[in-house]
Design brief:
Elements lengths: L7 H7 L8 E8 L12 E6 L2 E5 L5 H7 L6 E5 L5 H4 L2 H11 L4 E4 L2 H14 L7 E4 L3 E4 L4 E7 L11 E9 L2 E7 L7 H8 L1 H9 L4 E6 L15 H5 L6 E4 L3 H10 L4 E2 L19
Parallel strand pairs: 3-4, 4-5, 5-6, 10-11, 11-12, 12-13
Antiparallel strand pairs: 1-2, 2-3, 7-8, 8-9, 9-10
Length: 285
């Protein structure tokens, strides 16, 4: 897991108050891809003072949450797509929540991804129908956490015809807007998809460009141009958005990427900590 400290301006914007819930920090369970056992499957927790949001849950996630006694503290689970390195321990979390914590697990995703998850949980894993809910509303307001989450449909941008999605977190603090984007697995910059699908949101991001933080998958592996499944890191360096944190690659790939484009910040190479209580702020830049 990793800890980050925010630059002073952003730290002041996001600092929680008694009247307005906000981000306390972010824990990174893993930053690797399907075959990167050293970096663990890509998974994140965003900590709020009123709850925590988990993004994806691969093979390492349940063990991490269980070890740190955090399962009951997860308010919602956001799923980007249904490859095993992003979903395989979701049934474990649901079983644990329902049987041990007497709690229903809330899942957020898009309609197409949700249909696959529902079938997987009910007909393959045999989770009880009443043990989880799946919400596929496109834009969701979480008033208790003081955030809005916009779901970006990226179907076909990872694997052909495969449902997938990304997420845009929208926060307002001290009259400023903050945006945190998670790409999920995708073969091009997610901001290009946002520009194509939601011009109003894209304009909003551009109008607040210094306050946009992008967590984006990236690869340095040579791919079949006819079947791209991950984003070439060089494309990310060309974006107008500069607060980009990359993941879903090995340490070897990270070194290649950062050597060529040091402006891209690889989560694989960042400082790590195992103490959850130390994560009081957001990024170290």
């Amino acid at each position: 897991m990793q800890k980050f400290r925010i630059v002073p301006k952003i730290n002041n914007i996001l600092k929680p108050t008694s009247k307005s819930p906000s981000i306390l920090g972010i824990s990174i369970i893993g930053t690797g891809g399907l075959f990167d056992i050293n970096e663990k499957d890509s998974s994140f927790i965003i900590h709020f003072n009123n709850g925590n949001i988990l993004i994806d849950c691969g093979s390492d996630t349940y063990k991490f949450l269980k070890k740190n006694n955090m399962i009951k503290d997860i308010s919602h689970i956001l799923i980007t797509h249904t490859h095993p390195d992003h979903i395989c321990t979701l049934p474990n979390i649901i079983f644990d929540n329902y049987i041990l914590n007497k709690k229903i697990t809330s899942i957020e995703t898009t309609e197409k991804v949700g249909e696959i998850i529902n079938n997987y949980l009910l007909n393959i894993c045999f989770n009880k129908k009443e043990s989880f809910t799946i919400n596929n509303t496109k834009d969701e307001n979480f008033y208790d956490l003081n955030i809005k989450i916009i779901k970006i449909d990226t179907t076909g941008y990872h694997k052909k015809n495969m449902p997938s999605c990304g997420f845009v977190f929208c926060l307002k603090k001290n009259n400023e807007s903050i945006y945190i984007i998670f790409s999920g697995d995708i073969n091009c910059p997610i901001t290009k998809v946002i520009k194509k699908q939601n011009k109003d949101l894209y304009k909003e991001l551009n109008d607040n460009i210094d306050n946009v933080f992008v967590f984006h998958e990236a690869t340095a592996v040579i791919q079949d141009k006819k079947d791209l499944v991950h984003t070439d890191y060089a494309e990310l360096n060309e974006l107008e958005f500069k607060n980009i944190f990359i993941y879903h690659h090995s340490k070897e790939e990270a070194n290649i990427i950062i050597e060529e484009f040091p402006e891209l910040k690889s989560l694989v190479l960042m400082e790590k900590s195992l103490i959850l209580e130390e994560i009081k702020t957001f990024w170290k830049i």
